[in-house]
Design brief:
single chain, 267 residues, alpha/beta, six-stranded parallel β-sheet, 11 helices, globular, binds D-glutamic acid
């Protein structure tokens, strides 16, 4: 089935998930929506994030998507259940695959979670991890300054090193051996985070596992694009086309030249 897969995020961060889907499923076409006018979601309430997610799902359905990937950790944490009830196509989120991968990665059953304030407050990673194994100890930390640092392009920078050091200082005392980068932007800081935590801590990027879950679901439901399908990707945002295009071209393996602005409030 050659219909596209809808992928959405609060902004540009979900492009790290889109990149992984493009790598693992090169024959699939994507419709990406970045809610660049209303980002960040990470400090907003469940009610607001659910409303935004519903509007985006309604928009994606007008593009005949065959599945929806919630590429945003915060929207996955707060709005997945509601979206699953709303739409009649399969929904894949980033939190459950990330939790599963962390549980598979840890040897000492001590896992750290980094995320936005709303994701951490929701307790969703703990919930999934304890469903998998109640003996796992989970240490969580909200890192609200990471997103603006990435958006400003301060990836390898003294300011970033300083803030990463401050946020992760306490976490180092818990002797975790796996650390979930539970926000779309954090995989872009993996160099600095990895140096700060040291070699004994494995960094878990939910994007990889999400693309794997998507692939499994497409196989199970017989939804793969036909062999030889030429994938074509389209990008939509709610504002700020130029910034989106330049970020997309820094992150994605393909060139992005066009992005369309959508009046998302009308969906
Ligand atoms: N995409 C969000 C997430 O993964 C990060 C940016 C935001 O706060 O909206 O949680």
């Amino acid at each position: 089935m050659n219909d596209p897969i809808g992928v959405f995020d609060s902004g540009v961060g979900g492009l790290t998930v889109a990149r992984e889907i493009m790598r693992q499923l090169p024959g699939e076409s994507l419709i990406y929506f970045g809610d660049t006018a209303r980002v960040p979601y990470g400090s907003k309430s469940r009610k607001t994030v659910c409303k935004y997610s519903r509007q985006i799902a309604n928009f994606l359905l007008t593009k005949q998507v065959k599945a929806i990937v919630i590429a945003c950790n915060t929207a996955s944490a707060l709005a997945r259940e509601e979206l699953e009830e709303l739409v009649d196509v399969p929904v894949i989120d980033v939190v459950r695959p990330g939790a599963r991968m962390a549980a598979e990665t840890t040897k000492n059953k001590r896992i750290g979670i980094l995320g936005t304030e709303s994701t951490i407050k929701s307790g969703i990673y703990e919930e999934y991890l304890h469903q998998i194994d109640p003996e796992i100890t989970v240490v969580s930390k909200a890192c609200p300054l990471f997103v603006p640092l990435v958006e400003e392009g301060l990836i390898e920078d003294r300011v970033t090193e300083d803030i990463v050091g401050r946020y992760l200082h306490d976490m180092k005392e818990y002797e975790i051996d796996s650390l979930v980068l539970g926000c779309t932007h954090y995989p872009l800081l993996r160099g600095v985070i990895g140096r700060e935590m040291g070699e004994s801590v494995r960094l878990v990027n939910p994007a990889y596992e999400t693309a794997k879950s998507l692939k499994e679901m497409l196989r199970e439901k017989n939804l793969f694009a036909a062999p030889g399908n030429r994938a074509s990707h389209r990008y939509f945002v709610s504002d700020g086309v130029e910034k989106f295009i330049s970020f997309a071209n820094a992150v994605l393996p393909c060139h992005v030249s066009e992005t369309t602005v959508v009046d998302i409030e009308s969906y």
